[in-house]
Amino acid sequence: MPYLTEDYGNPSSLHSPGQVAKAAIEDVRARIARAIGARTDEIVFTSGGTEANNFAIKGVMFANRERGDHLVTTVIEHHSVLETCRFLERHGFKVTYVPVGRDGIVDPSDIEKAITDRTVLVSCMHANNEIGTIQPIREISKLLKDKGILFHTDAVQTVGHIPVDVRKLGVDLLSASAHKFYGPKGVGFLYIRRGTRISPFIHGGNQEHKRRAGTENVPGIVGMGKALEISISDIEEEMERLKRLRDRLISGIMERVDGVRLNGHPDMRLPNNVNLTVERVDGESLLVALDMEGIAASSGSACSSGSLDPSHVLLAIGLSRDEAYGSLRLTLGRSNSEEEVEEVVEKVAEVISRLRSLLP
User: Fold this and answer.
1) How are beta strands 327-331 and 70-74 bridged, if at all?
2) pLDDT tens-digit readout, 84-116
3) Options 192, 249, 303, 348, the catalytic residue
4) Is 124 an annotated catalytic residue?
5) 327: which of 36, 73, 208, 253 lies 20 to 30 Å off by Cα?
6) What fold does the segment set 16-233 form as a domain?
C-alpha cells in the first residue's frame, strides 16, 4: 500500500522518491534470488508468467540463431509456451514437441532423442497446470549439461508451493508468476542464469539492466516479494497439509462416485492438485452446478472462454475427446480446511448423481 500512495516515485528517477522505490524493488530482487538459490542480478521482473515464458524462449532463440534454429518442448506445456513455439515456427525456427506418458510425465530419454546438432533450447514445465504432474527437471538438465543446450522451465505452478532451487534443478531460465502464490496479478519474474545469451523481449528504456524495458510495477513487485516470503516460510508443513487434504478429496469422491478416474501421476504431482475424469457427465454442466453450490472448479475443456476444444493436456495423456470434456479440476489452497474437503466430497457426489439422473 505505501507504494501505491506515499512512496509513488519512479524507480528510474534520480530524485529521492524515485530512489526509495528503486531500493524497494532491489530489496525484493535480492529476496527472490535467495528464495530460489539464484544471484540477485539473475532476476528480471516481468508482467507475469506469460511474458516470462515469451521472453525466455524468444529471447534465447533469436539471440542464438547463428548457433542453431531448433528447440525442444513437450506437448503438455502451457499455451504461453506452445503459442510462442508456433510463433517461432512461422519465423523459420524448428520445434519438436515431445509426447508424455499416460501419467503425464515426460521420459528424459525422449527429450534426448529429439535433440539435434541445431538444438539451442529445451523448454519443459516444472509441473503441469492442469493435471499437476511434476516433471523430472533435474534428470533432463543432466542430459543437457555437456551439450551446450540451454534449459528453460516454466515453474509458474511450483514456485511458492514446493521447494525450488535453480542450482539443484540445473536450469538456465525459470519463469514464475506472483498470483500463483497469493501475490498481485500482473507481475512475475524470469530467472536468467548469469552468462546466458538472451535478447530483450520488450524494447525501450534501460530498466532491468537493459533486459526488460518499461517502468517497473513497484507495488506489484513489492507485493510479490512479500507473498513469496510468506509462502516459503512454512512450505514443508503446508505441502504435507495439502497432500493430506488432496488425497482425502480424491479418495472421498472415488468412494462415493463410480466411473471416476484420476488424471496424472498419483504421487509425482503438486500437493494441491486434483484432476478427475467423470464418466457420463458433461464437464460444463458439472462446473455450473458446482458453482451454484459455492464450489469454484475448473474443467479440462475451455467452454467458458468460448472454445469448444477439449484440453490438449488430457488428449496428450490418452483421453478421448468425450473423456476430456468430462474432466473436473479442484485446487486446494491455504484457506481450505478438512471440513471444507468433506463438504466438497458430499456436494460433488450429489451433483454428479443429479446430473446423471437427467441423462436419457
Assistant:
1) unpaired
2) 999 999 999 999 999 999 999 999 999 999 999
3) 303
4) no
5) 73
6) Aspartate Aminotransferase; domain 2 (3.40.640)
